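hey
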Protein backbone atom coordinates (compact mmCIF):
# COMPACT_ATOMS: atom_id res chain seq x y z
CA UNK A 1 0.00 0.00 0.00
CA UNK A 2 1.46 3.41 -0.88
CA UNK A 3 2.40 5.47 2.10
CA UNK A 4 -0.06 8.26 1.43
CA UNK A 5 -2.79 5.69 2.12
CA UNK A 6 -1.10 4.58 5.29
CA UNK A 7 -0.92 7.94 6.94
CA UNK A 8 -2.62 6.79 10.11
CA UNK A 9 -0.13 4.02 10.47
CA UNK A 10 3.04 5.95 10.23
CA UNK A 11 3.39 6.58 13.91
CA UNK A 12 3.69 2.87 14.41
CA UNK A 13 6.94 3.05 12.66
CA UNK A 14 8.66 1.47 15.67
CA UNK A 15 8.68 -2.04 14.39
CA UNK A 16 5.59 -3.40 12.81
CA UNK A 17 4.71 -0.75 10.33
CA UNK A 18 8.25 -0.25 9.18
CA UNK A 19 8.75 -3.91 8.76
CA UNK A 20 5.47 -4.09 6.93
CA UNK A 21 6.59 -1.39 4.64
CA UNK A 22 9.30 -3.67 3.43
CA UNK A 23 7.72 -7.06 3.44
CA UNK A 24 3.96 -6.69 3.56
CA UNK A 25 2.00 -8.61 1.04
CA UNK A 26 1.15 -5.56 -1.01
CA UNK A 27 4.76 -4.48 -1.34
CA UNK A 28 6.25 -5.04 -4.73
CA UNK A 29 8.93 -7.70 -4.84
CA UNK A 30 11.70 -5.18 -5.64
CA UNK A 31 11.21 -3.61 -2.19
CA UNK A 32 11.97 -6.94 -0.52
CA UNK A 33 14.94 -7.50 -2.81
CA UNK A 34 16.18 -4.04 -2.04
CA UNK A 35 15.87 -4.76 1.64
CA UNK A 36 18.02 -7.89 1.35
CA UNK A 37 20.53 -5.94 -0.71
CA UNK A 38 20.87 -3.27 2.00
CA UNK A 39 20.92 -5.94 4.70
CA UNK A 40 23.76 -7.73 2.93
CA UNK A 41 25.74 -4.55 2.44
CA UNK A 42 25.45 -3.68 6.14
CA UNK A 43 26.33 -7.15 7.43
CA UNK A 44 29.36 -7.27 5.16
CA UNK A 45 30.77 -3.99 6.49
CA UNK A 46 32.71 -4.74 9.67
CA UNK A 47 31.45 -2.30 12.33
CA UNK A 48 33.08 -3.82 15.43
CA UNK A 49 34.73 -1.49 17.90
CA UNK A 50 38.20 -3.06 17.55
CA UNK A 51 38.84 -2.80 13.81
CA UNK A 52 35.54 -1.89 12.17
CA UNK A 53 34.09 1.40 11.02
CA UNK A 54 30.56 2.66 11.45
CA UNK A 55 31.55 5.55 9.17
CA UNK A 56 31.80 3.20 6.18
CA UNK A 57 28.34 1.79 7.00
CA UNK A 58 26.89 5.27 7.58
CA UNK A 59 28.29 6.51 4.25
CA UNK A 60 26.93 3.45 2.41
CA UNK A 61 23.46 4.14 3.82
CA UNK A 62 23.80 7.86 3.04
CA UNK A 63 24.56 7.01 -0.59
CA UNK A 64 21.44 4.84 -0.76
CA UNK A 65 19.29 7.66 0.57
CA UNK A 66 20.84 10.24 -1.76
CA UNK A 67 20.28 7.92 -4.71
CA UNK A 68 16.64 7.60 -3.64
CA UNK A 69 16.24 11.36 -3.95
CA UNK A 70 17.05 12.77 -0.53
CA UNK A 71 18.66 16.22 -0.88
CA UNK A 72 22.28 16.41 0.29
CA UNK A 73 21.44 18.80 3.14
CA UNK A 74 19.10 16.22 4.67
CA UNK A 75 21.67 13.42 4.83
CA UNK A 76 24.58 13.94 7.21
CA UNK A 77 27.40 11.63 8.28
CA UNK A 78 29.14 12.99 11.35
CA UNK A 79 31.08 11.68 14.31
CA UNK A 80 33.89 12.25 16.80
CA UNK A 81 36.61 10.53 14.72
CA UNK A 82 37.05 8.88 11.31
CA UNK A 83 35.89 5.41 12.46
CA UNK A 84 32.84 6.33 14.58
CA UNK A 85 30.57 8.08 12.12
CA UNK A 86 26.80 8.37 12.61
CA UNK A 87 24.19 8.86 9.91
CA UNK A 88 21.37 11.35 10.37
CA UNK A 89 18.78 11.64 7.62
CA UNK A 90 15.57 13.63 7.53
CA UNK A 91 12.44 13.00 5.51
CA UNK A 92 10.68 16.35 5.46
CA UNK A 93 7.04 16.46 6.51
CA UNK A 94 4.46 19.22 6.50
CA UNK A 95 5.70 20.51 9.86
CA UNK A 96 2.29 20.20 11.52
CA UNK A 97 3.95 18.39 14.42
CA UNK A 98 7.43 18.17 15.87
CA UNK A 99 9.63 15.47 14.31
CA UNK A 100 9.84 11.84 15.33
CA UNK A 101 13.32 10.36 15.68
CA UNK A 102 13.99 6.74 14.72
CA UNK A 103 17.20 5.27 16.06
CA UNK A 104 19.23 2.16 15.37
CA UNK A 105 22.85 1.20 15.97
CA UNK A 106 25.29 0.33 13.22
CA UNK A 107 27.95 -1.28 15.38
CA UNK A 108 28.11 -4.98 16.18
CA UNK A 109 29.72 -7.10 18.88
CA UNK A 110 33.15 -8.55 18.09
CA UNK A 111 33.09 -11.78 16.07
CA UNK A 112 36.02 -14.18 15.82
CA UNK A 113 36.11 -16.13 12.55
CA UNK A 114 37.19 -19.25 14.44
CA UNK A 115 34.00 -19.16 16.55
CA UNK A 116 31.78 -19.17 13.48
CA UNK A 117 30.81 -21.84 11.01
CA UNK A 118 30.52 -19.14 8.33
CA UNK A 119 32.35 -15.86 7.80
CA UNK A 120 30.61 -13.51 10.29
CA UNK A 121 31.02 -10.62 7.87
CA UNK A 122 29.36 -12.32 4.98
CA UNK A 123 25.59 -12.66 4.76
CA UNK A 124 24.79 -16.31 4.19
CA UNK A 125 21.23 -17.46 3.50
CA UNK A 126 20.85 -21.15 4.24
CA UNK A 127 17.77 -23.26 5.01
CA UNK A 128 15.67 -20.11 5.47
CA UNK A 129 18.08 -18.73 8.03
CA UNK A 130 20.38 -15.77 7.64
CA UNK A 131 23.84 -16.08 9.14
CA UNK A 132 26.21 -13.21 9.87
CA UNK A 133 27.20 -10.85 12.67
CA UNK A 134 24.48 -8.27 13.21
CA UNK A 135 21.81 -10.18 11.30
CA UNK A 136 19.64 -9.92 14.41
CA UNK A 137 21.21 -7.05 16.34
CA UNK A 138 20.46 -4.95 14.52
CA UNK A 139 21.44 -4.62 10.90
CA UNK A 140 18.09 -6.19 10.03
CA UNK A 141 16.38 -3.23 11.72
CA UNK A 142 18.77 -0.71 10.19
CA UNK A 143 18.09 -2.09 6.71
CA UNK A 144 14.33 -2.02 7.33
CA UNK A 145 14.55 1.63 8.41
CA UNK A 146 16.68 2.69 5.44
CA UNK A 147 14.61 0.74 2.89
CA UNK A 148 11.42 2.24 4.30
CA UNK A 149 12.71 5.80 4.20
CA UNK A 150 13.85 5.28 0.61
CA UNK A 151 10.42 3.99 -0.32
CA UNK A 152 8.67 6.88 1.39
CA UNK A 153 10.86 9.31 -0.55
CA UNK A 154 10.29 7.58 -3.85
CA UNK A 155 6.52 7.47 -3.29
CA UNK A 156 6.65 11.18 -2.39
CA UNK A 157 5.06 10.47 0.95
CA UNK A 158 4.78 13.61 3.03
CA UNK A 159 4.12 12.87 6.71
CA UNK A 160 2.68 15.46 9.08
CA UNK A 161 6.00 15.60 10.90
CA UNK A 162 9.64 15.21 9.84
CA UNK A 163 10.88 11.66 10.19
CA UNK A 164 14.51 11.67 11.33
CA UNK A 165 16.61 8.54 11.10
CA UNK A 166 19.80 8.25 13.19
CA UNK A 167 22.00 5.19 12.71
CA UNK A 168 24.73 5.37 15.29
CA UNK A 169 28.06 4.06 16.61
CA UNK A 170 29.10 2.32 19.82
CA UNK A 171 25.84 1.04 21.24
CA UNK A 172 27.35 -2.37 21.99
CA UNK A 173 30.50 -0.93 23.52
CA UNK A 174 33.27 1.54 22.74
CA UNK A 175 33.83 5.06 23.94
CA UNK A 176 31.77 7.06 21.42
CA UNK A 177 28.10 6.22 21.85
CA UNK A 178 26.54 7.86 18.83
CA UNK A 179 23.23 8.82 20.40
CA UNK A 180 25.03 10.47 23.30
CA UNK A 181 27.45 12.19 20.93
CA UNK A 182 24.70 13.51 18.67
CA UNK A 183 22.64 14.86 21.56
CA UNK A 184 25.68 16.65 22.99
CA UNK A 185 27.16 17.90 19.71
CA UNK A 186 24.34 18.10 17.15
CA UNK A 187 21.12 18.38 19.07
CA UNK A 188 19.62 20.35 16.19
CA UNK A 189 19.97 17.33 13.90
CA UNK A 190 18.08 14.94 16.17
CA UNK A 191 15.72 17.17 18.12
CA UNK A 192 12.32 15.47 18.15
CA UNK A 193 9.07 15.19 20.02
CA UNK A 194 9.64 11.52 20.71
CA UNK A 195 11.99 8.70 19.79
CA UNK A 196 11.34 5.15 18.67
CA UNK A 197 14.11 2.56 18.96
CA UNK A 198 13.82 -0.43 16.68
CA UNK A 199 16.08 -2.36 19.07
CA UNK A 200 13.49 -2.71 21.85
CA UNK A 201 10.55 -5.05 21.48
CA UNK A 202 9.03 -7.22 18.79
CA UNK A 203 7.16 -10.43 18.28
CA UNK A 204 7.51 -12.99 21.08
CA UNK A 205 7.34 -16.62 20.03
CA UNK A 206 7.39 -19.71 22.21
CA UNK A 207 7.69 -23.11 20.58
CA UNK A 208 6.40 -21.66 17.37
CA UNK A 209 3.37 -20.06 19.05
CA UNK A 210 3.01 -16.31 18.81
CA UNK A 211 2.60 -14.93 22.31
CA UNK A 212 2.58 -11.21 21.80
CA UNK A 213 4.15 -8.13 20.35
CA UNK A 214 6.25 -6.43 22.99
CA UNK A 215 7.08 -2.74 23.17
CA UNK A 216 9.88 -2.00 25.63
CA UNK A 217 8.60 1.16 27.28
CA UNK A 218 10.86 1.35 30.33
CA UNK A 219 13.72 -0.68 31.79
CA UNK A 220 14.93 -1.89 35.12
CA UNK A 221 18.32 -0.56 36.20
CA UNK A 222 21.31 -2.88 36.59
CA UNK A 223 23.56 -2.56 39.67
CA UNK A 224 26.23 -4.65 41.43
CA UNK A 225 27.14 -4.20 45.10
CA UNK A 226 30.02 -5.76 46.96
CA UNK A 227 29.32 -6.88 50.50
CA UNK A 228 32.54 -7.16 52.52
CA UNK A 229 33.36 -8.32 55.99
CA UNK A 230 36.89 -7.75 57.32
CA UNK A 231 38.46 -9.33 60.38
CA UNK A 232 41.93 -9.50 62.02
CA UNK A 233 41.75 -13.28 61.61
CA UNK A 234 43.80 -15.66 63.74
CA UNK A 235 44.46 -19.38 64.15
CA UNK A 236 41.52 -21.69 63.52
CA UNK A 237 42.39 -23.66 66.67
CA UNK A 238 41.13 -20.72 68.70
CA UNK A 239 37.91 -19.53 67.05
CA UNK A 240 36.00 -16.51 68.29
CA UNK A 241 32.38 -15.57 67.61
CA UNK A 242 33.60 -12.59 65.56
CA UNK A 243 34.12 -14.30 62.19
CA UNK A 244 34.09 -12.61 58.78
CA UNK A 245 32.40 -15.56 57.07
CA UNK A 246 29.64 -15.79 59.69
CA UNK A 247 28.96 -12.04 59.54
CA UNK A 248 28.63 -12.18 55.77
CA UNK A 249 26.66 -15.43 55.73
CA UNK A 250 24.12 -14.11 58.21
CA UNK A 251 23.75 -10.89 56.23
CA UNK A 252 23.17 -12.90 53.04
CA UNK A 253 20.61 -15.00 54.90
CA UNK A 254 18.71 -11.81 55.71
CA UNK A 255 18.82 -10.86 52.01
CA UNK A 256 17.50 -14.31 51.09
CA UNK A 257 14.50 -13.81 53.37
CA UNK A 258 13.88 -10.22 52.28
CA UNK A 259 11.41 -9.30 49.56
CA UNK A 260 11.47 -5.86 48.01
CA UNK A 261 8.10 -4.09 48.02
CA UNK A 262 5.55 -4.80 45.31
CA UNK A 263 5.39 -2.00 42.74
CA UNK A 264 3.53 -1.29 39.52
CA UNK A 265 3.73 1.50 37.01
CA UNK A 266 1.70 2.20 33.89
CA UNK A 267 3.94 0.00 31.74
CA UNK A 268 4.16 -3.03 34.04
CA UNK A 269 0.42 -2.77 34.68
CA UNK A 270 -0.20 -3.00 30.93
CA UNK A 271 2.44 -5.74 30.67
CA UNK A 272 0.74 -7.87 33.29
CA UNK A 273 -2.66 -7.31 31.70
CA UNK A 274 -1.24 -8.40 28.35
CA UNK A 275 0.55 -11.42 29.81
CA UNK A 276 -2.67 -12.50 31.55
CA UNK A 277 -4.23 -12.96 28.11
CA UNK A 278 -1.63 -15.61 27.33
CA UNK A 279 -1.95 -17.56 30.62
CA UNK A 280 -4.22 -20.45 31.56
CA UNK A 281 -7.39 -19.32 33.40
CA UNK A 282 -6.24 -19.90 36.99
CA UNK A 283 -2.99 -17.99 36.54
CA UNK A 284 -4.76 -15.26 34.57
CA UNK A 285 -7.18 -14.80 37.49
CA UNK A 286 -4.26 -14.36 39.88
CA UNK A 287 -2.69 -11.72 37.64
CA UNK A 288 -6.01 -9.88 37.43
CA UNK A 289 -6.25 -9.96 41.24
CA UNK A 290 -2.81 -8.34 41.38
CA UNK A 291 -4.08 -5.56 39.12
CA UNK A 292 -7.04 -4.84 41.41
CA UNK A 293 -7.11 -1.77 43.63
CA UNK A 294 -5.94 -2.58 46.24
CA UNK A 295 -3.87 -5.43 44.86
CA UNK A 296 -4.52 -8.91 46.26
CA UNK A 297 -1.56 -9.68 48.53
CA UNK A 298 -2.07 -13.42 48.39
CA UNK A 299 -2.06 -13.37 44.58
CA UNK A 300 1.15 -11.31 44.62
CA UNK A 301 2.77 -13.82 46.98
CA UNK A 302 1.71 -16.84 44.91
CA UNK A 303 2.78 -15.41 41.57
CA UNK A 304 6.07 -14.15 43.03
CA UNK A 305 6.86 -17.58 44.43
CA UNK A 306 5.88 -19.49 41.30
CA UNK A 307 7.08 -17.33 38.44
CA UNK A 308 10.49 -15.62 38.46
CA UNK A 309 9.54 -13.46 35.47
CA UNK A 310 6.42 -12.09 37.15
CA UNK A 311 8.33 -11.69 40.41
CA UNK A 312 10.93 -9.55 38.66
CA UNK A 313 8.23 -7.54 36.89
CA UNK A 314 6.61 -6.58 40.19
CA UNK A 315 9.58 -5.41 42.25
CA UNK A 316 13.28 -4.64 42.58
CA UNK A 317 15.25 -7.85 42.99
CA UNK A 318 18.69 -8.37 44.55
CA UNK A 319 20.48 -11.70 44.70
CA UNK A 320 23.91 -12.99 45.74
CA UNK A 321 25.82 -14.06 42.65
CA UNK A 322 29.45 -14.52 43.79
CA UNK A 323 31.18 -15.41 47.04
CA UNK A 324 34.82 -15.45 48.21
CA UNK A 325 36.34 -15.80 51.67
CA UNK A 326 39.31 -16.94 53.70
CA UNK A 327 42.90 -17.67 52.73
CA UNK A 328 43.90 -20.94 54.42
CA UNK A 329 42.19 -24.03 55.79
CA UNK A 330 43.69 -23.49 59.25
CA UNK A 331 43.25 -19.71 59.52
CA UNK A 332 40.32 -17.61 60.65
CA UNK A 333 39.09 -15.64 57.63
CA UNK A 334 40.34 -12.08 57.30
CA UNK A 335 37.95 -11.27 54.47
CA UNK A 336 34.63 -12.47 53.18
CA UNK A 337 33.01 -10.84 50.15
CA UNK A 338 29.92 -11.40 48.07
CA UNK A 339 28.60 -9.78 44.94
CA UNK A 340 24.94 -8.86 45.14
CA UNK A 341 23.33 -8.13 41.81
CA UNK A 342 20.21 -5.94 41.69
CA UNK A 343 17.66 -5.12 39.00
CA UNK A 344 16.08 -1.94 40.21
CA UNK A 345 12.46 -1.07 39.54
CA UNK A 346 12.18 2.21 37.59
CA UNK A 347 12.00 5.28 39.79
CA UNK A 348 14.72 4.39 42.32
CA UNK A 349 18.39 5.34 42.25
CA UNK A 350 21.24 2.89 42.75
CA UNK A 351 22.19 4.75 45.93
CA UNK A 352 18.67 4.38 47.32
CA UNK A 353 18.92 0.63 46.86
CA UNK A 354 22.42 0.58 48.39
CA UNK A 355 20.98 2.21 51.49
CA UNK A 356 18.19 -0.40 51.51
CA UNK A 357 20.84 -3.09 51.39
CA UNK A 358 22.69 -1.54 54.35
CA UNK A 359 19.43 -1.84 56.32
CA UNK A 360 18.94 -5.44 55.24
CA UNK A 361 22.54 -6.28 56.19
CA UNK A 362 21.93 -4.70 59.64
CA UNK A 363 25.53 -5.35 60.67
CA UNK A 364 28.17 -2.62 60.90
CA UNK A 365 30.84 -5.28 60.29
CA UNK A 366 29.54 -5.80 56.75
CA UNK A 367 30.00 -2.89 54.36
CA UNK A 368 28.03 -2.40 51.14
CA UNK A 369 30.02 -0.81 48.29
CA UNK A 370 28.91 -0.04 44.77
CA UNK A 371 30.70 -1.83 41.91
CA UNK A 372 31.28 0.43 38.91
CA UNK A 373 31.05 -0.92 35.37
CA UNK A 374 34.85 -1.35 35.22
CA UNK A 375 34.91 -3.21 38.56
CA UNK A 376 36.14 -0.36 40.81
CA UNK A 377 34.44 -0.06 44.22
CA UNK A 378 32.95 3.18 45.53
CA UNK A 379 31.48 3.69 49.00
CA UNK A 380 28.26 5.17 47.57
CA UNK A 381 26.35 4.60 44.35
CA UNK A 382 25.11 7.07 41.69
CA UNK A 383 22.10 8.90 43.02
CA UNK A 384 20.30 9.96 39.86
CA UNK A 385 16.88 8.45 39.49
CA UNK A 386 15.91 6.74 36.31
CA UNK A 387 13.47 8.59 34.13
CA UNK A 388 9.86 7.56 34.65
CA UNK A 389 8.36 5.19 32.06
CA UNK A 390 7.46 6.83 28.77
CA UNK A 391 3.84 7.65 28.10
CA UNK A 392 2.15 5.04 25.93
CA UNK A 393 1.09 7.55 23.29
CA UNK A 394 -2.07 6.74 21.45
CA UNK A 395 -0.56 7.87 18.15
CA UNK A 396 2.12 5.21 18.57
CA UNK A 397 0.20 2.41 20.25
CA UNK A 398 -3.01 2.54 18.24
CA UNK A 399 -1.38 2.08 14.83
CA UNK A 400 0.85 -0.60 16.32
CA UNK A 401 -2.23 -2.48 17.50
CA UNK A 402 -3.73 -2.10 14.02
CA UNK A 403 -0.64 -3.35 12.24
CA UNK A 404 -0.25 -6.27 14.68
CA UNK A 405 -3.92 -7.17 14.17
CA UNK A 406 -3.44 -7.12 10.42
CA UNK A 407 -0.41 -9.38 10.46
CA UNK A 408 -1.06 -11.53 13.51
CA UNK A 409 -4.79 -11.48 14.29
CA UNK A 410 -5.53 -11.93 17.98
CA UNK A 411 -1.97 -11.41 19.15
CA UNK A 412 -1.77 -8.95 22.07
CA UNK A 413 0.49 -5.88 21.92
CA UNK A 414 2.20 -5.71 25.29
CA UNK A 415 4.23 -2.80 26.69
CA UNK A 416 7.14 -4.29 28.66
CA UNK A 417 9.74 -3.41 31.26
CA UNK A 418 12.66 -5.74 30.57
CA UNK A 419 15.29 -6.59 33.15
CA UNK A 420 16.47 -10.02 32.25
CA UNK A 421 14.19 -12.20 30.29
CA UNK A 422 14.98 -15.71 29.27
CA UNK A 423 15.26 -16.13 25.54
CA UNK A 424 11.64 -16.58 24.68
CA UNK A 425 12.02 -17.60 21.09
CA UNK A 426 12.73 -21.26 20.65
CA UNK A 427 14.07 -22.30 17.30
CA UNK A 428 11.19 -23.63 15.30
CA UNK A 429 11.19 -25.68 12.13
CA UNK A 430 11.80 -23.34 9.21
CA UNK A 431 8.20 -23.04 8.14
CA UNK A 432 9.15 -21.10 5.06
CA UNK A 433 11.32 -23.90 3.86
CA UNK A 434 8.57 -26.45 4.37
CA UNK A 435 6.20 -24.32 2.40
CA UNK A 436 8.73 -23.68 -0.27
CA UNK A 437 8.62 -19.93 0.29
CA UNK A 438 11.37 -17.46 0.80
CA UNK A 439 11.89 -15.82 4.18
CA UNK A 440 12.48 -12.13 4.76
CA UNK A 441 13.49 -10.73 8.10
CA UNK A 442 10.56 -8.89 9.57
CA UNK A 443 11.41 -7.74 13.02
CA UNK A 444 13.57 -8.47 15.99
CA UNK A 445 12.79 -8.56 19.66
CA UNK A 446 15.32 -8.06 22.38
CA UNK A 447 15.25 -10.30 25.36
CA UNK A 448 17.47 -8.02 27.42
CA UNK A 449 20.98 -9.40 27.92
CA UNK A 450 20.03 -12.95 27.25
CA UNK A 451 19.50 -12.96 23.55
CA UNK A 452 17.41 -11.89 20.68
CA UNK A 453 14.69 -13.32 18.58
CA UNK A 454 14.11 -12.41 15.00
CA UNK A 455 10.87 -13.09 13.30
CA UNK A 456 10.99 -13.89 9.66
CA UNK A 457 8.01 -13.69 7.43
CA UNK A 458 7.59 -15.84 4.39
CA UNK A 459 6.85 -14.05 1.19
CA UNK A 460 3.27 -14.49 0.12
CA UNK A 461 4.33 -15.32 -3.37
CA UNK A 462 2.25 -18.51 -3.33
CA UNK A 463 -0.68 -19.81 -1.31
CA UNK A 464 0.16 -20.82 2.25
CA UNK A 465 3.23 -18.65 2.40
CA UNK A 466 2.08 -16.29 5.09
CA UNK A 467 3.35 -17.88 8.28
CA UNK A 468 6.04 -16.48 10.48
CA UNK A 469 8.94 -18.34 11.94
CA UNK A 470 11.18 -17.43 14.79
CA UNK A 471 14.90 -17.71 15.01
CA UNK A 472 16.52 -17.17 18.34
CA UNK A 473 20.11 -16.57 19.15
CA UNK A 474 22.48 -13.88 20.25
ZN1 LIG B 1 21.09 -3.86 19.72
Amino acid sequence: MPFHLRRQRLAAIACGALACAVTCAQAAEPAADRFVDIYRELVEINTTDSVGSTTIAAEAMAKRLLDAGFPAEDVVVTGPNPRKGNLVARLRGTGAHKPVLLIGHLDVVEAKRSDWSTDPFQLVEKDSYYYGRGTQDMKDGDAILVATLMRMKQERYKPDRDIILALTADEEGGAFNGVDWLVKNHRELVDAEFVLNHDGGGVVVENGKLLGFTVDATEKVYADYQWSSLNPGGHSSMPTPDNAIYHLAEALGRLERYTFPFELNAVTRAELAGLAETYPPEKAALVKAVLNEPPDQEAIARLSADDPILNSTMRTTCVATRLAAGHANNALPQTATANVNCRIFPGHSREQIRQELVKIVADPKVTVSYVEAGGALTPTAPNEQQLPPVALREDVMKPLHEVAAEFWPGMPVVPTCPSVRPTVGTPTPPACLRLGCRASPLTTMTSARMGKTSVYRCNRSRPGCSSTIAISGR
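The radius of gyration is 25 Å. Confidence is low (pLDDT under 50) at residues 1-29, 420-474.
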